[in-house]
Amino acid sequence: MQADFAYQAAQDSAGCQLAVTIIADRELIRAQLHDDAEAAGFRVIECCTLEDYAQAGIASLGDLLLIDCAQVDAQDMAQLSRLDIRAGKAGAQMVVATSMAALDAVFGCFALSGPQILVDPGRAERVIAIGRALAHVPNLRLRELDEEDRLMLLRLTEQVGQIAMRLERTSPGKSASGGAFRLESPAPAWRGQGEEYLVEAKVRARLPEPALLRRILKARQARARFFDGDLFADPAWDMLLDLAAARGEGLRVSVTSLCIAAGVPATTALRWIGQMVEAGLLLRVQDPEDRRRAFIALADTSAAALANYFAEVGTAELAAV
Q: Which UniProt keywords apply (predicted)?
């Protein structure tokens, strides 16, 4: 007798089939997303372009929202921002695919819903993102993945877990000393009123000059010309160096620029950025002149931790870092 490989639809803990809304301007991608969502057990409640979705005024988002927007204009950005607010309030999960050219604009639209953002993804990456979304649904029964998809999902899960653990260990806000900032006296030896006690000042370390940080970053990136870049991939450190230099230069750093500095694929860099923001190492800063844009900056505790590190290592050794 032939084995029965039919699996039940993806359901929530109440036994209701999960629903998905698909918004994609490219017809081929829209068809692929439709097939992949159905294969994962979702019920597709809408599959259309962003313009059609905006005009239809559809009430329900479903449990998952899949968006593909390789190019966006001002009207698209306004619609994406509205979807971000709705998904954030409804608790719907989002997977947003875009291009490197549109990344800054798209990233700025999503401040509430915490979507998975993919940059120029292949179909396998989209499938894995759907799998990650399913992993957040309790008591879920899935259709079977083939061995290749299973291994890719396992590797992705391990990667995200490793990022989270590494950041938890290195977050300066959780150091045993209670953080990098503390109340200090205004002079090397300051005596309080009445001279009952003496407070010895601790000199606060300063970040190295931006030009030196840029040279260090450039030297690190040059290794990829002679060796496999994966051998030296350390996106968190490269992003910290880039943001520290920008801080000294008084420059704002876009998410696209930071992804390039990370030296890893943009989608991977975005995972690191998301985890580092969550860990308090980085800050998402809204552009005061255009609320649709957002920049990434060092948290003060991260800047202080970097300054203390470089002060301990010494400037003579910095170029070899």
A: DNA-binding
Q: Is the CB of residue 112 less than 8 Å from the CB of residue 84? A: yes
Question: Residue 24 class from Cβ within 10 Å (0-12 exposed, 13-18 middle, 19+ buried)?
Answer: buried
| Dihedral over Cα of 107, 108, 109, 114: its sign | positive
For domain 19-144, the CATH architecture is: 3-Layer(aba) Sandwich (3.40)
| CA–CA distances in Å: residue 162 to residues 58, 114, 119, 230 | 39, 19, 21, 16
Assign 69 to helix, strand or coil: strand
pLDDT digits (tens, 9 = 90+) for 260-275: 999 899 999 999 999 9
Query: Where residue 158 falls among pLDDT bands split at 50, 70, 90?
Result: low
SS3 of residue 233 by DSSP:
coil
Nearest-angstrom CA–CA distance, 240 and 199: 33
Give backbone dihedrals phi and psi of 319, rounded to 5 degrees, phi first: -65, -20
DSSP, residue by residue, 5-34? ---PPPB-TTSPBPEEEEEESSHHHHHHHH
